[in-house]
Amino acid sequence: MKPNIFFTADHHFGHENIIKFSERPFESMEHMNQELIKRWNERINPGDTVYHLGDFSLGKPDFTKEILDQLNGNIHLIKGNHEGVALTYPKRFASIRDYHELKIDELDNQNGKQKIILFHYAMRTWNGSHRGVWQLYGHSHGTLPDDEMALSFDVGVDCHDFYPVSYEEVKEIMKKKKWTPPFGPRE
């Protein structure tokens, strides 16, 4: 069985102003933090793999460690622009990178793999974008319109009812895109 793989970004734990900036439906920072932890753990089991695409916490180091210790899963951190605090607890992360090219076994694909570019920021083009490689990002908090012609989208919590999204959910979203290979046979 394939391990459960999830993607998420932009939790901004400990950042009270994000409630106002991103119009989050929480009464307070404490309420937001509790709800984000609850929704994470509703989806993610201890053995699952999570790729967090940046901006984990803006709280102090002890606060951030306390949050990280409550979250299920093996967390891989793709650094965002607010990562200073999360990096004070590096042993909690399975890996820490600026950018990652993930390959997942995928029997539906001709070569048996699905390659996914993981980066905090949205890109207009990326390695393999013309060959069906996906790109997942955060940072924009749902403010970028989705490009139905590109195999990319925002996995940030503001776009997914404050839940992480599974690989299977990402796959379903990508199937609905209108992307076609630019160098394939023309009709």
Automatic annotation (TrEMBL):
InterPro entries: Calcineurin-like_PHP_lpxH (IPR024654), Metallo-depent_PP-like (IPR029052)
Domain of life per record: Bacteria
Ranges where the Calcineurin-like phosphoesterase domain occurs: 31-141
One of the Pfam families matching this protein, by short name: Metallophos_2
Family: Belongs to the metallophosphoesterase superfamily. YfcE family.
Name this polypeptide is given: Phosphoesterase
